[in-house]
Amino acid sequence: MTKLVQNLDPIVAAAKGKGCSTSIAFAAPEREIKVFMGGVGVASVTRNFDVQPASMVELDRKPIASMEWLSNQMFGHDDNLGEIHARFKVLPEGKNRSTALVMPQSSGTLLPARIINSLFVDIKIPALNLRMENRDALVLRADSVAMGREVLMADARFRAYPAGTPQYERYLIDGGVPSRFLAAGTHTQVEPIQMFQPSDSFLPVARLEKAEVMVLPHYGVEVELVEGNLLPESWSATLKVSNLLERKLDLRWFCDPLNRMQLRGRRSGRLLLRSSAAKTINLRGALKAPAESLNALDTVMFSICNVARGPEDFVSGYIALTVSNSQ
């Protein structure tokens, strides 16, 4: 029997919340803004879907693991400019795609490790009618550890209101062992880079002075699969998004299909949730191949977060859906 289920494969299902403190200096008119941006991102060991990726055990034996970002979007708010949106460039967007290198600090284990990200970012500021991107890679560097109980308990959000803890993070707090590659750490920009409009790659419009990306555990939101359906050439899913906090949430969601999964309809949207309330979101799409031929790499990733002012009020959630060929 072929059905749509939650994807728990550690290679493609490990998403993390992210908070980024960013300084941007504009060329004309000359000014500088500092903004916190929150989002969700997921990276994979491989994007070559013709080859089954290594298991986590096999990956642990490699001195360096190369990863590619599959999805990452971030949202921020400036008092004068309003909402700001940033997105990592990923395949199939040409040669300028966002990648990461993981260099373990000891043999036999993937974490702790030095992680170096090489990112190509698309930033939109609607109030200025401005879209800009970097021509040279934005390089971020971090010394990362596994996201376990110690990391979560150091997060002020979990200590202040434990009831806002999602199921998987509660499992980690209770002493559970991460089943996915979840690396926690602060990624610091190595050097400033110029930002250009896509239509003019020679005249810089801004300079990204400083970016400090904090990897944050999911908190405040639970995302669950209510129902998943498969037809010979299409799929549909109903997701339940629950507010675990005693305050209103103004959320942004986005959805990214991988490999032989296609999405129809909206790829992103806004969701308002009252205190402790829940709503459903309906997704649908097409299949590029018969359902029985698909595997765990044929995935639809759903991410959601708020437009936070800082890490203390950031909330996020994530789920990955895939095809299961069970008896």
TrEMBL record:
This is Uncharacterized protein.
